[in-house]
Amino acid sequence: MLLFAKTKRSAQRILENIVPVIEEKLLLKVNTEKTVVAYIGKVKFLGYGFYPSKEGIKNRVHAKSISKMKAKVKELTSRSNALGYEMLKVKLKQFITGWVNYFKLADMKKLLQTTDEWLRRRVRMYIWKRWKKIRTRYAMLKKLGLNHSTAFKFACTRKGYWRIANSQILKVTVTDARLRQAGYTFFSDYFKTVMA
User: Which domain of life does the protein's organism represent (predicted)?
Assistant: First the structure.
């Protein structure tokens, strides 16, 4: 249970008054170790954080919940995992739909947009790693619209996977639209369907 007050003093007074009611009338035990008066920005409740706004108190995804989410996405899109494209799509969809449905009450539109940019880069990195050989990279880049010289030059690059994933070449070949068409699920897209 969360109780909000404008000042620390009034919050302390509410706490002192509410504990006897909970314990004596409702016959519930209050855990004194977990019962605290804290600034709203430091509160974490069921994965949610909170912040004051002109309209009142608003929900957001707590920083620790964001870190956990990113760790899971990193695990799924790791260059070393052997899921394969189809299983990766399935696992990402399962995780994203569950996560968005749980946190759908949070103010997170901007968070999801930046997370999707990062996720698409991770997916591009995963795809580039799977192409592996110069011959495969060249063939795929040609198939996706590059001319011979550009495709060959880029296929032979020695730049790191993460750096390549953010390159303009991959952004115009492995486009956002193509990723969606291939069946990848993204946070913002699913959030829109949930909130429609």
Answer: Bacteria
For 2, other C-beta atoms within 10 Å of its C-beta total 10
CA distance from start to end of the chain: 29
Tokens 């994965």 belong to 47
Q: Name the token pair of 108.
A: 């997170």
Beta strands in the chain (DSSP E): 48-53, 56-61
Residue 32: phi and psi, rounded to 5, are -70, -25
Report the distance separating Cα 27 and Cα 36, nearest Å: 20
* Residue found by looking up tokens 């040609």 in the block: 142
Q: Look-up: residue for tokens 């698409």?
A: 120
Q: What is the pLDDT of residues 123-146, one digit of tens each?
A: 999 999 999 999 999 999 999 999
Rounded Cα distance between 72 and 17, Å, is 42
User: Tokens 């591009």 map to which residue?
Assistant: 124
115 C-beta neighbours (distance < 10 Å), count: 20
